[in-house]
Amino acid sequence: LLTCWALGKLHVLSSPSQGLFIKLLLCLSPMVLATYVACTRIANYEHNPSDVNAGCFIGLVSALVCYFLNYPSLLSVDCHLPKLRSRVSPLSAQLSPGSHAGQADTEVSQKLEVIHEAI
User: Fold this and answer.
1) Sign of the torsion formed by the C-alpha atoms of 81, 27, 39 and 49
2) Degrees, nearest 5: CA angle 69-88-67
3) What pLDDT is attached to residue 100?
4) Is 78 helix (H, G, I), strand (E, B) or coil?
5) How far apart are CA 114 and CA 62, in angstroms?
């Protein structure tokens, strides 16, 4: 996840620039560290290779899913910006000024008063 985030923030894959090799090394360093830990676990006979491979696969898939739920493609120009999500609830959208005229506003106000009295 950290590798994908750094690749996006530094625009490594979306817009080539000077210092690309240094940026790429910086972005891939978390992945290199994770690979080193996985290899030492196998070499020290602390884990079976199948366990380490399964853990690597689960970690990689979950990191990619989490990243792409929140950020666009790493090849996109806007890869450094998180995806926009609407935080407006349906009730607050109805209450926003100018969204509904006249009768609809009074109906919503009456419903809110009934709910408020019930609480």
Assistant:
1) positive
2) 10
3) 47
4) coil
5) 45
Distance CA 27, CA 2 (A): 8
Q: Residue 13: what residue type?
A: L
Biggest distance spanned by C-alpha atoms of the chain: 74
Output the pLDDT for position 115: 73
Q: What are the residues whose beta carbons fall under 8 Å from the beta carbon of 82, sequence distance 6 or more? A: 70, 71
End-to-end CA distance of the chain: 44
How far is the C-alpha of 51 from the C-alpha of 64, rounded, in Å? 20
C-alpha torsion 56→60→62→68, nearest 10:
180
CA–CA dist 112, 38 (Å, integer):
57
pTM: 0.63
The Cα–Cα gap between 6 and 17 comes to 15
Question: What confidence tier does 105 reach under pLDDT thresholds 50, 70, 90?
Answer: low
Cα 74 from chain centre: 12
Distance CA 25, CA 50 (A): 28
